[in-house]
Design brief:
Helix content: 40-55%
Number of domains: 1
CATH superfamily: dinb family like domain
CATH topology: Four Helix Bundle (Hemerythrin (Met), subunit A)
Oligomer: single chain
Number of helices: 5
Strand content: 5-15%
Order of helices and strands: EHHEEHHEEH
CATH architecture: Up-down Bundle
Largest sheet: 3 strands, antiparallel
Strand order of the largest sheet: 1-2-3
Length: 196
Amino acid sequence: MAQVQNASPQLAAPGAGLPGIELPIARVLFTLRAWTHGRRRIDALFRQERALIAELVRACPAGRLGERVLIPRPRGLEDSSRYWSVLMTLEHLRLVNLACAAIICELSEGRVPAGKASTADVKPSPDVTEAVISAYEASCDEVLAAVESAKDLDSAARFPHPWFGPMSARRWHVLAAVHLGLHRHQIEAILRGLKG
């Protein structure tokens, strides 16, 4: 049962990854999605998850978007991510969307981005404000624009994800859509916690 808490719970460190057998299973499921879903289908999934998240944000009780809720850990999310507010979740999505858009642009041009992807680097601040709602929506637009303008989604250039290894621009597109779905489930759990 999710619960609103005042004291911070003891959670695994950011970047600790997924437990046990869950990571290999996530890799297999992600690879299957990438093999069986083309660009249009992934675009449709991204748009669908974006619309569902927007509905959830609108359904959140007034004044409670920034309230942190401890939820059971959903499959596919690190333990450190289970004590967030709706706004924190949107900030995380914004950060990841912007990173995915930039990576897709670079890889589709045959360039490997500098640096490395890190799940710990995209954890949100608990002090995020409602301004993140429009910023998150703009980040969704950036992902769609990056995919639309990509010269080669099946890029030879690869950039590694910390869980899924080296990925083409197309796989980063898949990741952006799947990632929205994971965190849509998280927002649903947060809202259940706010009600109960």
